[in-house]
Amino acid sequence: MSYQDLIVEVHDKVALIRLNRPKALNALNDNMMNELGEALYKFDADPAIGCIILTGSEKAFAAGADIAAMVDYTYPDTHRDNYIGRNWEHILRVRKPVIGAVAGFALGGGCELAMMCDFLIAADSAKFGQPEIKVGVPPGAGGTQRLPRAVGKAKAMDMLLTARTIDAAEAERIGLVSRVVPADKLIEEVLAVGKQIASMSTSVAIQIKDAVNRSFETTLSQGVSYERQLFQSAFGTPSQKEGMKAFLEKRLPNFEGL
Ligand code: CAA
C-alpha cells in the first residue's frame, strides 16, 4: 500500500513508519493521521510483524498539529468533527509494541504523539516541547496528562506553562526517553531494538504492554492481580514451554509464530 504522507518499510519482522511531510516539518494533518491509523492497524494485524517503529525525518519527528490547517477552525467545527479525538488515538489501540524514534523537533502534537508510543529512543538532535500556549491553545492530544505521568508535575508544568523546549539529554534525564543515540545511528539502533523485541514471543510482548498500560489506569493491587493472572495463564502457552525448555537445554528459544 502506498501513502501520501507516510513512507513505510518492513525490515525482517519490524515495520518502520516514517511521517513524511518534510516541507511542513511533519506537521500532523488529517490525512497523515488517517494514513497513520491505516498503517498501524495493517501492521498490528500482520502475523509477520512483531514490532512497529514510528519515526519522522532527521529534522523533525513532528512539529505539532498543522497550524495552517486549523487556524480558521471554529468551535462548532472542532466539536462536531471531534477534532483530534477522531483520528489521533489509533496508535493507542495497537496491541504490538510501538517504539518512537525521535530526531529533531517533537513539539506540541508531535510530542504528544511520541508519548503515545510505548517507549522513545531519541537521537542526540531531538528536541521536545509543548509550545501550544504560544499559539493560544492548551495541548489537545494528551500533553497535560501523559507528560506529568512521564516526567512528574514540576517538569511538566515548567514545559507546558513556559513552552520551553528540552534537548535529548534532559529528556533522558527526566525519563521522557529511554535511550539517546547519535543522530546518524538512530534508525540502525532502533531497528536493532525492534528486531530484538520481534525475535521473542509477540503474545508475551502484547501482555506486557497491556499490563504496563493498565498500571496507569488502575490501583496497585488490581494491577498486580491482573499481572498474576497473566503470569499464571502463561503456563498454558507454548511460549512458556519453549522459553523455559530452551533455557534448560542451553539453546536459543524459537518463538517463531508465538
Ligand atoms: N503546523 C504547520 N506548519 C508548520 C508547523 C506546524 N505545527 N511547524 C512548522 N511548520 C512549517 C512552517 O510554517 C514552515 O513552512 P513554510 O516554509 O511554508 O513557511 C516550515 O514548516 C518550516 O518551519 P520554520 O521555517 O518555522 O522552521 P524553523 O527551523 O525556523 O523552526 C520550529 C522550526 C521551531 C519547529 C517552528 O517551525 C515552530 O515553532 N513550529 C510550530 C511549533 C508549534 O507551535 N507546535 C504546536 C502546534 S499546536 C498543537 O500541536 C496542538 C495539539 O496539541 C494537538
Summarize the structure.
The chain has 258 residues and is α/β, with parallel strands linked by helices. 42% of the residues lie in helices and 16% in strands. It has helices at residues 30-44, 67-70, 75-80, 109-115, 143-151, 153-162, 168-173, 186-198, 202-215, 220-233, 238-248, and strands at residues 6-11, 14-19, 51-55, 60-62, 98-102, 105-107, 119-123, 127-129, 166-167, 179-181.
Descriptive account of the structure:
The protein has two domains: 6-198, 2-enoyl-CoA Hydratase, Chain A, domain 1 (Alpha-Beta Complex), CATH 3.90.226; 201-249, Lyase 2-enoyl-coa Hydratase, Chain  A, domain 2. 42% of the residues lie in helices and 16% in strands. It has eleven helices and ten strands. It has helices at 30-44, 67-70, 75-80, 109-115, 143-151, 153-162, 168-173, 186-198, 202-215, 220-233, 238-248, and strands spanning 6-11, 14-19, 51-55, 60-62, 98-102, 105-107, 119-123, 127-129, 166-167, 179-181. The strands form two sheets. The protein has a six-stranded mixed sheet, with helices on both faces. The chain is globular, with a radius of gyration of 19 Å. It starts with 5 loop residues before the first strand and ends in a 10-residue tail after the last helix. 36% of the residues are buried. Bound molecules: acetoacetyl-coenzyme A (CAA). Acetoacetyl-coenzyme A (CAA) binds next to α2, β6 and α4. Keywords: Fatty acid metabolism, Lipid metabolism, Lyase. InterPro entries: ClpP/crotonase-like_dom_sf, Enoyl-CoA_hyd/isom_CS, Enoyl-CoA_hydra/iso, Enoyl-CoA_hydra_C.
